[in-house]
């Protein structure tokens, strides 16, 4: 049985200033409002909680050799809440009390989101947050209620929210059962938050949610996070549970969106086989036909080899550029825009065109992600999808 330590109720804003004047309080509230207005994405709560968890497990992995990083994600559509738990380094008492303060961060510039606004968004963007931590020296559970209502209260009639002991303990069983150290964050959604209702997108199963999270959050890195295992529980509106897990999660590659995908090297190999048997290499077998996605991927070595095969004359500057950056290139050609409609239907995703997560266009992935709609900007409409990491 875990022994959770108690603590006196505290105000996370005290880490920002000790002065409790009306002017400074209003300035602090305006700072927080400014932070919240920068979060306009429907998946921002997922991005921030998962990002924090991944930073925590990566930090512990750098310290310990015999360590298996794990993250547990619970999307509860029945209770309209999100829980993300990790077995990372945890927060000590000082960090626990400073974690939710505006612009306060323990992260270095090497970490994702080191500016210290993500935790403030989670704390003050919603009306319920539970924060649990477990370290060798400090284990506790706290909650803060009504913070978003306080931020939106221009009349200053509401009391400043405080983090208090949560005597009911962690909401996530994984935090209680599986962690020697780590953090668990739970946020609840309501009519005063954005998003308001997790049921809005329509997805009910863990398999669908996992695909979207790999596309929308830090789970979808171009390079896999070594040894990380992620467990996803989704509870639908009727209380039915579905579960998924993934090891070394990466970006949701386009060929993974269809069971009718074909690797270009398999085509090359088959054509060579036909040619060597004195057959027409253009007459591919039936199982090579009617494919929705043809894709290819090249690392540094294969790029150099390909340049020789196609007799691409690389000068010294070109070669030095490739050697320095060692690019990885991935391309996928999607036959029809109907593929994306089918993809969203399989996910049971909301049918509104504005809410779709993937559609015909060109995607360029470098530091940030953006998508160009082929129907507006490209002459050859709706049938190309390009991924590039450089």
Please summarize what this structure is:
The protein has 12 helices and 14 strands. With about 400 residues, the chain is α+β, with helices and mostly antiparallel strands. The chain is elongated, with a radius of gyration of 24 Å.
Strand order across the biggest sheet?
Answer: 5-4-3-6-2-1-7-8
By CATH, the architecture of the largest domain is named 2-Layer Sandwich
| Total of DSSP H or I helical runs spanning 4+ residues | 12
Order of helices and strands: HHEEHHEEHEHEHEEEHEHHEHEEHE
Instruction: Give the name of the CATH superfamily of the largest domain.
Output: Histidine kinase-like ATPase, C-terminal domain
Radius of gyration: 24 Å
Helix content bin = 25-40%
Based on secondary structure, the structural category is alpha+beta
Shape: elongated
Look at the structure and give the CATH class of the largest domain: Alpha Beta
Nearest-integer average pLDDT: 85
Major sheet attributes: 8 strands, mixed
Rounded to the nearest angstrom, the distance between the terminal CA atoms is 49 Å
Q: What is the count of β-strands?
A: 14
Q: Any low-confidence stretches, pLDDT <50, length ≥5? A: 366-390
Number of self-contained structural domains: 2
CATH fold title of the largest domain:
Heat Shock Protein 90
């Amino acid at each position: 049985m875990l022994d959770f330590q108690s603590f006196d109720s505290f105000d996370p804003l005290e880490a920002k200033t000790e002065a409790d004047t009306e002017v400074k309080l209003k300035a602090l509230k305006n700072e927080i409002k400014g932070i919240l207005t920068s979060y306009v994405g429907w998946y921002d709560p997922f991005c921030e909680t998962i990002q924090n968890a991944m930073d925590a497990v990566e930090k512990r992995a750098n310290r310990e050799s015999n360590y298996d990083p794990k993250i547990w994600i619970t999307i509860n559509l029945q209770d309209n809440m999100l829980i993300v738990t990790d077995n990372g380094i945890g927060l000590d008492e000082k960090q626990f009390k400073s974690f939710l303060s505006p612009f306060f961060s323990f992260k270095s510039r090497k970490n994702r989101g080191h500016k210290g606004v993500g935790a403030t968004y989670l704390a003050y963007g919603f009306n319920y947050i539970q924060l649990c931590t477990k370290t060798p020296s400090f284990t506790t559970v706290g909650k803060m209620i009504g913070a978003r209502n306080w931020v939106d209260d221009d009349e200053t009639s509401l009391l400043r929210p405080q983090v208090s002991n949560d005597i009911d303990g962690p909401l996530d069983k994984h935090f209680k059962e599986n962690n020697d150290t780590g953090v668990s964050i739970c946020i609840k959604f309501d009519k005063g938050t954005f998003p308001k209702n997790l049921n809005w997108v329509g997805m009910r199963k863990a398999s669908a949610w996992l695909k979207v999270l790999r596309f929308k959050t830090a789970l979808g890195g171009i390079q896999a996070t070594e040894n990380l295992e992620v467990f996803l529980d989704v509870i639908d509106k009727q209380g039915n549970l579905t579960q998924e897990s993934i090891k070394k999660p990466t970006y949701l590659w386009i060929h993974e969106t269809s069971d009718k995908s074909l690797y270009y090297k398999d085509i090359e190999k088959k054509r060579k086989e036909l040619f060597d048997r004195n057959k027409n290499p253009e007459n591919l077998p039936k199982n090579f036909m009617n494919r929705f996605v043809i894709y290819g991927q090249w690392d540094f070595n294969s790029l150099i080899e390909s340049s020789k095969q196609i007799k691409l004359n690389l000068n010294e500057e070109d070669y030095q550029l490739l050697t320095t950056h060692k690019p990885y290139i991935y391309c996928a050609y999607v036959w029809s825009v109907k593929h994306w409609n089918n993809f969203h239907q399989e996910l049971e995703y909301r049918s509104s065109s504005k809410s779709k997560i993937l559609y015909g266009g060109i995607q360029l992935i470098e530091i940030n992600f953006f998508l160009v709609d082929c129907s507006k900007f490209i002459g050859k409409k709706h049938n190309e999808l390009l991924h590039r990491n450089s």
